[in-house]
Fold each of these.
Amino acid sequence: MRLLLVEDELEMASALSAALSRYDMILDHAPSLDHALAALANHVHDGIILDRQLPDGDGLSLIPRVRALKSGIPVIVLTARGNVDERVKGLDMGADDYLAKPFAVEELLARLRALMRRSPDIAPMTARIGNLEFDFDSRQARVGDRALELPRRELLVLETLARRQGRTVQRSTLEESVYGYDDEIQSNSLDAHVSRLRRKLLDIGANVEIHSIRGVGYLLRLAL
Ligand code: CA
């Protein structure tokens, strides 16, 4: 899962980024509206956490532009605690939820999960391909009754492929879901993650395969 935080307080951004990486999530940090627009144009995000007071304007002005780009993406607005006007204005502008600062990362995650459940077209709860089941809520993969334990990057690869099961996922899309903004991408590291993942799927007895389409990307499908 890849989130975009639009917030100019660097301390808060790095704390949240560290907290989310423990949940195997990638956080892109945009310190201004301009940065946010660039990030949205270049990456696919599963949710936006939006502060209002930004150096180049009110965060709420981003919402109509987000909706124009990809209408369903959940937007959570950060507000000052107890400020009812801010909350109401945010919701009026099309935010899906608000969160008072300071907040606990668990609360943020719970609210994101709730928003994603409300829009099943964007994020179905579970993907099933053959005997492989991927639960997007708990972010757990199972084959039959066995849990498949995966390190972060392999989990992110499988999650992205499972979300688009049966469809080819471009290399660039996969790299985006596996690497953050500032990560260095080694040219062959995606393939290395995929081949470890294939081995683990095989070892656990999954009847699915990660099919590679030369020069394009990968596809998760039933094993032929
Ligand atoms: Ca701010």
Amino acid sequence: MSSNRVGIVVGSRSDIAAAEKAAAVLDELGVGNEIRVISAHRAPDLLGRWVASADQRGIGVIIAIAGLAAHLPGVVASQTALPVIGVPMAGGVSDGLDALLAIVQMPKGVPVATVGVGNGENAGLLAAAILAVSDDGLRTRIEERRASQAAAIAADPANEGL
Ligand code: RP5
């Protein structure tokens, strides 16, 4: 068993910025994670080996990030019972709307949760929330982060007196 609890996979090096946003928020919350770069169509065998190994090593959630046809999250989800969060990436004929629709319209039987285009941060937060169902310490850290976000907004000079 590794200490990593979230596996993050991107379809291409060009998607890495969104993966780093997810990893940053997971690091902040003390959730071990790993980033892999594996194309679902160019390296399907390697992808299958990584998904199987993630399952065996005790990873609890997978974040899969892809643009264009954006089949990576669905292919990953087809190979594991772990929850999979898809992040659509901008680019392609409609600058991310194509990938968003591809991921969110996963046909019945194998679900993929979907966050907004390029929103690696929310993918990381959602993965943490899933793990927090059985981890009270993590739940507390998520609540503290929410409180600190709210405090930062309250401290904005535009909100003085509220
Ligand atoms: C997808 O095609 C990747 O996820 C990436 O978003 C997009 C473009 O890939 P590259 O041309 O950068 O390899 O497979």
